[in-house]
């Protein structure tokens, strides 16, 4: 398995690199390519199993859009042809039509028909409990932005508790072809072993995962805790 991690120098605000390290532990002899801001993405020219990008700052989003804009049509073709992408935090917003930050409208890559609105005066923090193919999903989000657009036909997780793309939307994230985008932060794959197993199997890998018994035990404990009557937002 070959994983490309885009722009790790500015896309690791919440320990997002742990997702890639965990996949490397799951699949022995995996290769990880870390692509810097001044490099052309490798997935445009060679076979990559998974393209990963983690959360970044609002200024980081602007830089990423600027760097990727020349390859917009090539990226769109990669998505349409089923290349695997996993974007966590606010990373997936760069593929939207537009990001509005404090009334400043920033043109996105316009690959997906969504719009993000960012209010830097109001950070949203919440725990998250959802469902993916009958398995629970747990996580955490901390963000200034919400996404607007209809994802009923292409959502990633169905919300049980917490916030979806926005406060009025009960669906979290997007899945279009093999593009997986979610606002959930940090070690998403370690916290959700059954989702990780699914992802590996879809990519044609063995679905055995590293430290499987321990990871599943921790996941079940976390699900049980999240199912209690606890505060999900601050």
Tell me about this structure.
The protein is an alpha/beta fold. It has one domain (2-226): Rossmann fold, CATH 3.40.50. Helix content is 25%, strand content 30%. The protein is built from 6 helices and 14 strands. It has helices spanning 17-26, 58-68, 72-80, 188-191, 193-202, 212-226; strands at residues 2-6, 31-35, 50-53, 85-88, 96-101, 104-107, 112-118, 124-132, 135-143, 145-148, 157-161, 171-172, 174-176, 179-182. The strands form 3 sheets. A 6-stranded mixed beta sheet has the order 2-1-3-4-14-13, with helices on one face. A 4-stranded mixed beta sheet has the order 6-5-7-10, with helices on one face. Strands 9-8-11-12 form a 4-stranded antiparallel beta sheet, covered by helices on one side. It is globular and about 45 Å long. The termini are far apart. The model has no long low-confidence stretch (mean pLDDT 95).
Report a brief summary of the structure:
This protein has 234 residues and is α/β, with parallel strands linked by helices. It is 25% helix and 30% strand.
What overall form do the CA principal axes indicate?
A: globular
Structural class: alpha/beta
Approximately what portion of the residues adopt beta-strand conformation?
A: 25-35%
Largest sheet: 6 strands, mixed
CATH topology call: Rossmann fold
Question: What does the radius of gyration come to?
Answer: 17 Å
Using the coordinates above, name the CATH class: Alpha Beta
Average pLDDT level? 95
How many structural domains in the coordinates? Answer: 1
CATH architecture: 3-Layer(aba) Sandwich
Helical element count? 6
Element order, helices and strands? EHEEHHEEEEEEEEEEEHHH
């Amino acid at each position: 398995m070959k994983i490309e991690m885009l722009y790790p120098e500015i896309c690791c605000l919440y320990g997002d690199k742990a997702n890639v390290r965990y996949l490397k532990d799951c699949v022995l002899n995996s290769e990880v390519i870390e692509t810097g801001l001044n490099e052309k993405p490798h997935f445009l020219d060679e076979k990559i199993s998974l393209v990963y990008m983690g959360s970044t700052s609002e200024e980081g989003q602007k830089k990423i859009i600027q760097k990727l804009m020349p390859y917009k049509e090539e990226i769109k073709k990669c998505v349409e042809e089923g290349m695997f992408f996993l974007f966590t935090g606010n990373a997936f917003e760069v593929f939207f039509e537009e990001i509005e930050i404090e009334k400043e409208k920033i043109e996105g890559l316009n690959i997906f028909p969504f719009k993000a609105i960012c209010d830097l005066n109001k950070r949203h923090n919440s725990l998250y409990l959802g469902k993916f193919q009958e398995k629970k999903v747990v996580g955490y989000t901390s963000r200034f932005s919400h996404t607007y657009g209809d994802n009923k036909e292409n959502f990633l997780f169905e919300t049980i508790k917490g916030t979806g793309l926005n406060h009025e939307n009960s669906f979290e994230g997007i899945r279009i072809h093999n593009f997986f985008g979610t606002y959930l932060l940090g070690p998403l794959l370690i916290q959700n072993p059954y989702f990780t197993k699914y992802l590996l199997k879809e990519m044609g890998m063995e679905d055995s995962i590293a430290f499987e018994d321990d990871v599943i035990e921790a996941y079940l404990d976390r699900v049980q805790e999240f199912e209690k009557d606890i505060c999900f937002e601050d």
